[in-house]
Backbone:
């Protein structure tokens, strides 16, 4: 079942017009959200990022699109599918109503909420082999648009195909300044000694909700310095540890980049602190 503009429908009964602007022009933004036992994790951060993204795209934000309203719409879907005691991946998509060509005829919006049940309730440490490499066929152009979660993700899609073709678990994306920005579906952190670095938003990375949580956690750790600073490909092979973050898996340690292998001690400790934060929030 799905929630389309507040109406709960069977997925088989839903359809999109061929003139839908999310389909024809990628004129849409989305949030991928984790809900555990009817608790929407980090909901305020998701909500305010969504509102900021809609403003960037000049979408008209309805008066009823409040924090409370959208949370209730998510929970309404979860109740309809009888999954109040499960953990789910929720996708909230907002698009501009159809009309016009590149230039829209209206800035009014529509929305959809979909769900997928997850096997794991909270965040677990995954120390399985996880191999990455750079994807350099195309580059991220740093701008405000590159930091939001829009439906314009062709680079990530073909990067995913490249990873499949080369037996990789993920790819690291590079911007036009040749700095490493993020992974296909996650933000990147680099550990070297007592310094943890993550690329700044000005380099073009997604303004990740989990990225923010991890930065806040690191700031509370004595003797560890967090830096939002550019990362060059050269630094990857000099690092003690690399890890990725997103709201679904939490923290994913990278075990290998090319011939360089890494430990996972820091990411394991951060994951434990993240789970404490989730339980207390």
Residues:
């Amino acid at each position: 079942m799905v929630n389309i503009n507040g109406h709960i429908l069977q997925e088989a009964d839903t359809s999109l017009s061929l003139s839908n602007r999310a389909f024809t022009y990628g004129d849409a933004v989305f949030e991928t959200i984790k809900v555990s036992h009817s608790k929407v994790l980090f909901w305020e951060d998701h909500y305010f990022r969504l509102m900021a993204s809609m403003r960037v795209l000049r979408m008209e934000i309805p008066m009823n699109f409040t924090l409370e309203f959208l949370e209730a719409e998510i929970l309404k879907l979860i109740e309809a599918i009888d999954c109040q005691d499960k953990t789910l991946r929720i996708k909230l998509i907002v698009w501009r109503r159809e009309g016009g060509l590149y230039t829209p005829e209206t800035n009014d919006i529509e929305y959809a909420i979909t769900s997928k049940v997850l096997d794991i309730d909270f965040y677990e440490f995954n120390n399985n082999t996880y191999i990455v490499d750079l994807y350099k066929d195309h580059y991220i152009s740093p701008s405000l648009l590159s930091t939001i979660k829009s439906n314009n993700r062709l680079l990530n899609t073909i990067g995913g195909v490249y990873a499949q073709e080369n037996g990789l678990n993920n790819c690291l994306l590079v911007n036009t300044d040749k700095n490493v920005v993020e992974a296909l579906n996650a933000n990147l952190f680099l550990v070297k000694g007592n310094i943890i670095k993550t690329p700044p938003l000005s380099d073009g990375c997604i303004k990740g909700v989990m990225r923010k949580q991890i930065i806040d956690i690191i700031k509370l750790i004595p003797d560890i310095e967090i830096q939002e600073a550019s990362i060059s490909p050269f630094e990857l092979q000099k690092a003690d540890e690399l890890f990725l973050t997103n709201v679904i898996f939490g923290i994913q340690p990278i075990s290998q980049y090319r011939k360089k292998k890494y430990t996972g001690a820091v990411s394991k400790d951060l994951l434990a602190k993240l789970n404490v934060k989730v339980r207390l929030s």
Notes: The chain has two domains: 2-118, 131-280. The chain has a mean pLDDT of 96. The domain at 131-280 is CATH 3.20.10.10 (D-amino Acid Aminotransferase; Chain A, domain 2). Residues 265-280 form the longest helix (16 residues).
